[in-house]
């Protein structure tokens, strides 16, 4: 592995660094989404039970002691339960817009890695080929064509490395963006259920979905 890194030059080290960054982001986001789903059903049932009995202080206590996306939104709804249904919904939607960046955190960085890794690999190959053919031009001819072929093959290592890093980064980026969108839809459905317990209406409002634009 060290020999391959040395053959690829500084570009190979940059690609290796990007692979570590991508791996850290992917693992962190997977653990994050797993964590926010833990005991969600139990939390919802507790909130429903407290709200159905009119125990708003208890419901607020549950939200404050168990911070998550759903409890943050419900806390806003409970605190403004005296307002009309449409106002409650609007306030919850405003709160949801503050939760979305938390779910999107670091996803742009992962998308950037997916885009630039193969480009860096191509850059490494181009510079490597320039160096290989520069040697050929300097000496006029090469007694052993295998030497030139070896130089070109080593230059191609960075392209392969860039693609290897880019493919899983793209796959997980798309997966995580989809995960964010599904989480937002689930939050909307959960909030609609609980707002009804607060006396809220059934007007349809949509929480904006995260864009899959990788820029």
Give the SSE layout.
Layout: H1 2-37, H2 40-52, H3 56-65, H4 69-79, H5 85-104, H6 107-139, H7 145-197
Helix pairs in contact: 1-6, 1-7, 2-3, 3-4, 4-5, 4-7, 5-7, 6-7
Structure report:
This protein has 215 residues and is mainly α. It has one domain (2-197). It is built from seven helices and no strands. Helix 1 packs parallel to helix 7. The protein is rod-shaped and about 85 Å long. The two termini are 32 Å apart.
Secondary structure class reads: mainly alpha
Count of helical stretches: 7
Q: Give the end-to-end Cα distance, rounded to a whole number of Å.
A: 32 Å
Into which percentage range does the β-strand content fall?
A: under 5%
Helix content: over 70%
Stretches where pLDDT is under 50 for at least 5 consecutive residues are 201-211
Highlighted features:
7 helices; 215 residues; mainly alpha
Question: Gist?
Answer:
The protein is mainly α and 215 residues long. Helix content is 82%, strand content 0%. It has 7 helices and no strands.
């Amino acid at each position: 592995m060290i020999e391959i890194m040395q053959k690829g030059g500084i570009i190979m080290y940059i690609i290796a660094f990007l692979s570590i960054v991508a791996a850290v982001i992917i693992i962190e986001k997977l653990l994050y989404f797993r964590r926010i789903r833990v005991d969600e059903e139990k939390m919802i049932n507790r909130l429903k039970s407290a709200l159905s009995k009119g125990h708003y202080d208890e419901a607020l206590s549950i939200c404050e002691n168990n911070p998550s996306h759903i409890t943050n939104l419900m806390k806003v709804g409970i605190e403004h339960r005296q307002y009309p249904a449409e106002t409650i919904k609007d306030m919850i939607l405003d709160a949801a817009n503050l939760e979305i960046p938390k779910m999107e955190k670091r996803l742009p960085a992962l998308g950037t890695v997916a885009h630039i890794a193969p480009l860096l690999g191509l850059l490494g190959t181009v510079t490597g080929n320039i160096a290989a053919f520069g040697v050929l031009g300097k000496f006029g001819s090469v007694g052993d064509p295998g030497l030139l072929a070896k130089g070109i093959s080593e230059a191609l290592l960075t392209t392969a490395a860039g693609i290897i890093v880019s493919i899983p980064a793209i796959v997980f980026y798309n997966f995580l963006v989809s995960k964010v969108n599904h989480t937002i839809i689930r939050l909307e459905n959960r909030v609609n259920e609980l707002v009804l317990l607060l006396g809220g209406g059934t007007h349809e409002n949509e929480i904006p979905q995260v864009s899959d634009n990788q820029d």
